[in-house]
Amino acid sequence: MKKTNSKCYLSSFQLSKVKSIVQNNSIKKLCVYDELRPRHVTCLMKELGIEVIDKVLMILTVFQNHAGSREALLQIEMARLKHQLPLIRDWIRRIKAGELPGFLSLGRYAVDIYYRHITRRIAKISEELEKLRIKRSHEREKRKKQGFIHVAIVGYTNAGKTTLFNTLTNLVKPTGIEMFTTLSPKSYMIRICGINIVVTDTIGFIKNIPIGIIEAFRAVLEEISDADVVLLVIDGSKVLDQVEIELKTSLNILKDIGALGKPLIIALNKIDVANDANISDIVELIKINTNEYKTQLIDVITISALKRYNIDLLKDALCRTVQQVQRNLV
After folding, report:
1. pLDDT value, residue 68
2. Which of 3, 159, 172, 306 has minimal Cβ neighbours within 10 Å of its Cβ?
3. For residues 115 and 187, what is the distance between their CA atoms, to the nearest angstrom?
4. Cα–Cα distance, 44 to 53 (Å, whole number)
5. Where are the domains of the chain?
């Protein structure tokens, strides 16, 4: 978040201008693409008289529109409720101080009841998610005891992870050009060079993802941190600067969740629509950055998951890697 001394996040001039726009256009909601402090939201709602949501709630709204499983819905609801708690505490404090009439037209006692309801709901969701997390963990352990090698497909949002998952498994899981099509991990067993491999499609990474969202998707991220091999998908159709941003974001998240030290294969995807002259620069950029992060980089394979270009080369890299993992497990 940018530093601001304004109690309303906006300067007096900016606030006056926004208020005029809101009133002249009958706007009902203000979206601020930044992670706001409770006092900023409170002040903006008081001054503008409309609902105010920040970057976190916007992201969660997008997530909710794509959620296809009960687990994903629970994760999103808990992240939203945890994000709202500090705001509601701020409103309660201001109501008791006589600064505000109520929260979203609720009186003081109604706000207290609403706050207690949210804390109880968070506790219940946490319990349900913990059960699902434990169940998923037990399933992974059972597969590992049976000799399965786990490969997590990771990468920036919209890099083509699910398309690659479908190509490797011959499944037809939903894909799309919009962000965050995948919110719940999907796992499927395949055989490569005679070895049983469980490949898992995971949620897309984004730059500066708020910590509350990361915590909400703990069970999903555990699929990555507990994997034997990480298959990082990079969108090779983008300009070099954007590729570097997405690569570093992915490497930083892998580092944060303790997965950076695992064998790493990078699939440079979408070469069917990429600039050929740019590909060699991207490969060099990848090698420089992965070296700086001290990763166990196995190989960089240029592919098109959609057109199935070089998928055999990628499978060969997976074969070499899982064979080494298997030898280390003996």
Report:
1. 62
2. 3
3. 38
4. 10
5. 12-125, 147-329
